[in-house]
């Protein structure tokens, strides 16, 4: 199985994860936004990878400015997840006696 096929198939479990996470209603909103932003990372990475192949005849990882631009969205999603869970922990600590 090619890495591209594996990547495409891996989206289905992640979408299921998002569905259950959203439905549970227990995930901090900011963290949930971060998990959804991971899909934005995927949406940006795919065309960036195609552009790297067509324009530079190279892998995305070999074109620093393009790879860094795509990875920014992963960093952004991670920041939202961390801040969301941090906010939930702080709120929980405040509610304790």
From TrEMBL:
Keyword Glycoprotein: no
InterPro entries in alphabetical order: DUF3593
Pfam annotation, one family: DUF3593
Keywords associated with the record: Membrane, Transmembrane, Transmembrane helix
Segments traversing the membrane: 6-23, 30-52, 72-89
Protein name in UniProt: DUF3593 domain-containing protein
Originating species: Trichocoleus desertorum GB2-A4
Lineage: Bacteria, Bacillati, Cyanobacteriota, Cyanophyceae, Leptolyngbyales
């Amino acid at each position: 199985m090619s890495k591209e096929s594996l990547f495409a198939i891996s989206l289905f479990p992640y979408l299921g994860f998002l569905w259950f996470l959203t439905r549970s209603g227990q995930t901090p909103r900011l963290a949930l936004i971060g998990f959804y932003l991971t899909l934005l990372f995927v949406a940006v990475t795919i065309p960036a990878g195609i552009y790297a192949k067509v324009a530079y005849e190279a892998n995305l990882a070999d074109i620093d400015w393009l790879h860094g631009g795509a990875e920014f969205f992963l960093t952004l999603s991670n920041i939202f997840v961390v801040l969301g869970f941090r906010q939930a922990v702080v709120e929980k600590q405040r509610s304790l006696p």
